[in-house]
Design goal:
It is a single chain. This protein is α/β, with parallel strands linked by helices. The protein has three domains: 181 residues, Jelly Rolls; 87 residues, Immunoglobulins (Immunoglobulin-like), CATH 2.60.40; 327 residues, Glycosidases (TIM Barrel). The protein contains eight helices and 35 strands. The protein has an eight-stranded parallel β-sheet with strand order 30-29-28-27-26-35-32-31, covered by helices on one side. Strands 2, 3, 4, 7, 8, 9 and 11 form a seven-stranded antiparallel β-sheet that branches. The longest helix is centred in the last third of the chain and has 19 residues.
Length: 622
């Protein structure tokens, strides 16, 4: 087996990144900021681990190979192991947990993320059917199978990476190269228990309506009928007089907001807290009053409208990878550094690229004010399976699993105020042909009408006709095909038409049904001396390269000038590639280890301001 090694030359981990490694128990804050309970226990930290072969594993391990730090992939430095897991191997975890048996109290066991298939046992007893998906949590009521006091918890994980038939892999791949990165296997998110009463809140949906001045809660509970759900709204931790609601579980509970309520935006990220009670169960959370709509500006061009006003979305492609934690961020401070740096550069958004982050990540975006355009993690591109083109039989075979996983991701992230658009497909990765693609987009639009839906981001746009050129190599220099839309009267579900082009952005002609958007462009490679990738340089991924920070900043400025010109022709937003360097992609605004912001923040803000100024002029009648 190949050992994973720390791959930045000439640098140790940044101080922010090192926080988690120094902590005895990583990720020890409550994992779910919008549904907080008091009685919980963090199970992160050192567990026993063992790796066995699938072909000759007949019993559970009788000996263990060492300690692994949860919640970091076995391949990562922070796991303490740094070993690749092969598709023909099982990864086992073991630790002891304490359970206190109390009348009328249930104990829930939470796994925030496991890649890919997980099975859990207390002693001999399996706790639930196997869970498959690294994108969403797994919650198990262990009350009836737990004994008083110490219990042995065992977890079995199998991760085929891209050799599996169904699960999403995102950017993981067995043989990393180009813009695809190191595999991540095992427990990737916090593990924790909490105590709840017999009658408890399982989940809720909160939906603001700024036009009606209301916020609607819909609450799912363990046993409907035991009590009413009671809600009171808070501002700065204090209850607002008369801003409360009461109703039945499973029904809409509409709360009227006070006059002059504040709306959330990146410029003013106002949040409201709430307390919710159901019988003896009590949770605390927060929400925001905000809206993102597709509307025409004064000149009849489709634009994003945030809280009723035209708004230009200026974001980065954000992979969320780390040199020592891989897919798992090393600490809360490290996540906040990335988000705060983007804000300081004048960005108001990020596109969370083919990854679902821990809920605490989104909470930082909510509090600091950064719009999130959320990708659905997808399969790797078809050509890496030896297939050509888009929409092969394999995409159709896995379509049902993908759709169920997409629904679970939307349910999991629904209450995050910062998420304002779903992106179900990226560049044909796992994308079926036109019929099934349209069905996905149409379903998302109906399932969550409070947000916008991007059409396929880049490449084959099944909503609005094919793109000329070769979609596999991003050759989009031709204009869109004449069939720019579905025939009149046919449903066109997406709100956005999205172009990808490197290095310079391109703009499709103003679209009379959807917002024109540049979903990817840029990728300026500038390597800070001493921060080179130590892996195979022959597999590096470069769109365009500059040898000095001055030249790189100038190139970025020219790209912003292009966007400023595009907004007058209908452009509604743009996503620059990318926030940080990642392995062989050295085109970030920040180095991979987060020690260095490559460019002058004031210069970047000034470039952005030109685009914002042009936008404000473009959306008004001359």
């Amino acid at each position: 087996m190949k050992n994973y090694r720390f791959c930045l030359m000439g640098a140790a981990c940044a101080a922010l990144v090192a926080v988690a490694a120094e902590a005895k128990v990583p990720w020890d804050l409550y994992p779910r900021p919008q549904m907080v309970r008091a009685n919980w226990t963090c199970l992160n930290g050192e567990w026993d681990y063992a790796v066995t072969a699938i072909s000759n594993t007949f019993v559970r391990p009788t000996s263990w190979q060492g300690k692994i730090t949860v919640p970091f992939a076995i391949e990562s430095k922070l796991s303490g192991v740094g070993r690749d897991l092969a598709p023909d191997e099982f990864l086992w975890y073991r630790r002891t947990i304490d359970v206190s048996k109390k009348p009328g109290v249930r104990t829930l066991l939470h796994f925030d993320s496991v890649d890919f298939r997980a099975q859990a046992f207390l002693g001999h007893d399996e706790l639930d059917v196997p869970h498959e998906s690294m994108n969403v949590p797994w919650v198990i009521d262990i009350t009836d199978k737990a004994k008083e006091g110490a219990n042995e918890l065992t977890v079995l994980v199998w991760d085929p990476t891209e050799t599996g038939a169904f699960g999403s892999t995102g950017k993981q791949i067995l043989d990393p190269s180009s813009c695809f990165y190191h595999r991540c296997s095992g427990i990737l998110g916090s593990v924790w228990t909490e105590e709840v009463p017999e009658d408890y809140v399982v989940s809720y949906r909160v939906t603001p309506d700024i036009h009606a001045g209301t916020v609607t809660f819909k609450v799912d509970v363990s046993r409907p009928g035991a009590a009413l759900v009671e809600i009171e709204v808070l501002k700065d931790g204090h209850a607002i007089d008369s801003v409360k609601g009461k109703g039945l579980p499973g029904r809409d509970i509409v709360v009227k907001m006070p006059e002059g309520f504040a709306c959330w935006s990146p410029e003013s990220p106002a949040l409201y807290g709430f307390r919710m009670r159901y019988g003896t169960d009590a949770i605390e959370g927060y929400f925001a009053m905000r809206s993102l709509e597709k509307r025409r500006d004064e000149n009849g061009i489709w634009r994003f409208f945030l809280n009723g006003k035209p708004y230009y979305v200026m974001g980065t492609l954000d992979q969320g990878w780390w040199p020592d934690g891989l897919l798992t961020p090393p600490s809360e401070a490290a996540m906040e550094f990335d988000i705060r740096t983007l804000k300081e550069m004048g960005f108001n958004a990020l596109r969370k690229h083919i990854k679902v982050e821990p809920l605490r990540y989104y909470s930082i975006c909510d509090k600091l004010g950064l719009i999130v355009l959320q990708d659905m993690p997808s399969d790797v591109p078809r050509e890496r399976h030896g297939m050509k083109g888009i929409g092969g039989r394999e995409d159709t075979v896995r379509y049902g699993f993908y759709r169920r996983d997409l629904k679970r991701v939307i349910d999991h992230l629904y209450n995050v105020p910062a998420i304002l658009m779903w992106i179900p497909y990226n560049e044909g990765w796992g994308q079926p042909r036109a019929l099934l693609t349209h069905m996905t987009l149409d379903w998302v639009k109906g399932y969550d009408p409070s947000r916008l839906v991007n059409g396929p981001s880049g490449w084959n746009d099944s909503e609005g006709g094919q793109v000329l050129g070769n979609p596999l190599n991003n050759d989009w220099r031709g204009k869109r095909a004449q069939t720019a839309h579905r025939p009149a009267g046919e449903c066109e579900a997406a709100d956005v038409v999205d172009s990808h082009h490197y290095p310079d952005p391109i703009l499709f002609e103003a679209n009379d049904r959807r917002i024109s958007f540049v979903g990817e462009f840029g990728g300026i490679t500038y390597i800070v001396p001493g921060k080179e990738w130590a892996g195979d340089t022959k597999k590096q991924h470069t769109y365009t390269k500059e040898n000095s920070v001055e030249a790189a900043e100038a190139r970025y400025g020219k790209m912003m000038d292009m966007l400023a010109d595009f907004v007058g022709k209908g452009l509604g937003g743009s996503i620059y590639t990318q926030t940080t360097d990642v392995e062989r992609e050295m085109n970030g605004l920040i180095t991979y280890d987060r020690t260095t912001v490559k460019f002058d923040k004031a210069h970047i803000r000034a470039f952005h301001q030109k685009v914002f100024d042009a936008f404000e002029k473009a959306v008004r009648k001359p």
